[in-house]
Amino acid sequence: xxxxxxxxxxxxxxxxxxxxxxxxxxxxxxxxxxxxxxxxxxxxxxxxxxxxxxxxxxxxxxxxxxxxxxxxxxxxxxxxxxxxxxxxxxxxxxxxxxxxxxxxxxxxxxxxxxxxxxxxxxxxxxxxxxxxxxxxxxxxxxxxxx
Length: 146
Ligand SMILES: [Zn+2]
Ligand SMILES: [Zn+2]
What we know:
- By secondary structure, the chain is mainly α.
- It is built from 5 helices and 2 strands.
- It binds zinc ion (2 copies).
């Protein structure tokens, strides 16, 4: 998150809490808060700020620790919300169409690894995408043989 992203969120909460700041323009205090909260993304901080502004008993601008806790809470809440899988089928691997098996054609020579000449045939090999193919993993969870 950049300071220019941070500033509007900071100002929003400051206005919401209606607390005058000792350093006049709020600039120095803002730097202190940015030092603590600047590592969050803008979306994370916005979500935490929304939680703070909805706290019924809150009357004052939060401490850095309170704001930090609110962002952590917002992140935890979001983690509980399942992300919907995108509709529509997308193939992750063009080589195997996410089956985990890459198809080859052997004209009958040693392409497939057999030592002697033989009739042409199709054969498959384990596709190199398996370690990273999420679709393949989804279909091969829980004990099924690869
Ligand atoms: Zn593949
Ligand atoms: Zn062959």
